[in-house]
């Protein structure tokens, strides 16, 4: 039984337990960079109060939406041939439509959780749309990506289904996203270089063709973590870093292995991690096209997140009105191709949670921040 089937079984059980309870009053919106598998909302019995806005990918003069049947093969072919690939934020109108649908479905408030604002302008589009919504919409910059975002959205969905208030749902999403770790490596830096995603880290990375960098999403941006010389060593080190991260966490831990064009390697990596931490369920899912377009073929990424906090103990500090999440100060100028951030990442821990997590990774981080993995669209 795969993850979606288990999710559906749990959702059916909850549906029987709460058959007489009205549907959630809090809607949840996210974008397709969350990497949630197709059909997850239906499997989680959440299709009535959750919306996922697709992010566009441009290959040549063609525009594809995330989830298009022909996007993945077209993207893989374009990258293999060295053709130009670009990404863009969803239009505010797409978020407006999602907010209207949830309002019509009976939601009285919405929590809108999105890809890091340092990697994409998606959260800005959501903020613009929130201003014209008929019900309160709180827009959250997750400061993460892929299933780091996806786990936060799933936790917010569970919180909303349980009858939590909008403030509690928002606090749940923030908590899970803040504790999420995204580690990844790319076998070639060509795609990152073409898109200007190496930026200030180029000096740290050294000879481009001789390095298999392990990178991490920190403070919403992609920064280099370690240099590894061969793909097998990179795979082993990535697994080791993930195991260290999991070992430093309390409570239930969730993990996901992402891939693009290398499913067998993802299965092998998941097997290595799973053998070391058999108590952790590990999902294997493709990296969303909007992120793969910048990471390139053969990328392997691992997202790790903790469980959602107890609603009764959630802190709602920082919750605000629609669109109140302010953009990060000091971010670099935006263009259609992407945003490159500035700043020194040295000495910070891998994730924003407990300082005990992934200690060796945190002490080895060097260099400057540079955006990558997903574009500032």
How would you describe the overall organization of this protein?
The protein is an alpha/beta fold. Helices cover 36% and strands 19% of the residues. The chain has 13 helices and 13 strands. The chain has helices at residues 3-17, 40-43, 71-80, 92-104, 122-131, 146-161, 166-178, 190-194, 202-205, 231-247, 263-276, 289-295, 359-364, and strands at residues 26-31, 50-53, 56-59, 62-65, 85-87, 109-114, 137-141, 181-185, 212-218, 221-228, 253-259, 282-286, 300-306. Strands 10-9-8-13-11-12 form a 6-stranded mixed beta sheet, sandwiched between helices. It has a 4-stranded parallel beta sheet with strand order 2-1-6-7, with helices on both faces. It has a 3-stranded antiparallel beta sheet with strand order 4-3-5, covered by helices on one side. Strand 1, helix 2 and strand 2 (50-53) form a beta-alpha-beta unit. The two termini are 37 Å apart.
């Amino acid at each position: 039984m795969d993850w979606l089937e288990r999710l559906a079984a749990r959702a059916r059980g909850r549906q029987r337990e709460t058959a007489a309870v009205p549907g959630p009053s809090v809607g949840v919106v996210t974008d397709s960079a969350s990497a949630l598998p197709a059909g997850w909302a239906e499997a989680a019995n959440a299709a009535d109060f959750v919306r996922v806005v697709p992010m566009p990918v441009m290959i040549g003069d063609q525009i594809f939406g995330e989830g298009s049947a022909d996007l993945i093969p077209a993207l893989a072919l374009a990258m293999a041939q060295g053709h130009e690939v670009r990404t863009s934020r969803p239009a505010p109108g797409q978020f407006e439509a999602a907010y209207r649908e949830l309002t019509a479905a009976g939601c009285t408030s919405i929590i809108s959780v999105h890809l890091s604002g340092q990697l994409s302008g998606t959260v800005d589009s959501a903020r613009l749309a929130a201003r014209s919504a008929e019900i309160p919409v709180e827009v959250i910059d997750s400061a993460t990506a892929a299933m780091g975002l996806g786990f936060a959205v799933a936790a917010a969905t569970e919180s909303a289904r349980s009858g939590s208030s909008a403030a509690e749902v928002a606090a749940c999403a923030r908590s899970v996203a803040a504790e999420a770790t995204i580690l990844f490596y790319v076998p070639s830096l060509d795609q990152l270089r073409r898109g200007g995603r190496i930026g200030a880290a180029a000096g740290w990375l050294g000879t481009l063709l001789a390095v298999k960098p392990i990178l991490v999403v920190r403070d919403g941006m992609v920064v280099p973590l370690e240099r590894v010389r061969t793909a097998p060593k990179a795979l082993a080190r990535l697994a080791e870093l993930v195991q260290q991260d999991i070992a430093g966490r309390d409570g239930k831990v969730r993990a996901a292995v992402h891939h693009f064009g290398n499913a067998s390697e993802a299965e092998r990596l998941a097997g290595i991690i799973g053998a070391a931490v058999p108590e952790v369920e590990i999902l294997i899912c493709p990296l969303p096209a909007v992120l793969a377009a910048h990471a390139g073929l053969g990328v392997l990424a691992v997202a790790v997140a903790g469980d959602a906090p107890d609603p009764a103990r959630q802190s709602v500090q920082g919750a605000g009105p629609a669109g109140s999440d302010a953009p990060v100060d000091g971010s670099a100028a935006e263009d259609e191709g992407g945003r490159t951030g500035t700043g020194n990442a040295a000495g910070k821990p891998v994730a924003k949670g407990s300082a005990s997590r992934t200690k060796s990774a945190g002490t080895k981080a060097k260099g400057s921040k540079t955006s990558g993995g997903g574009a500032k669209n």
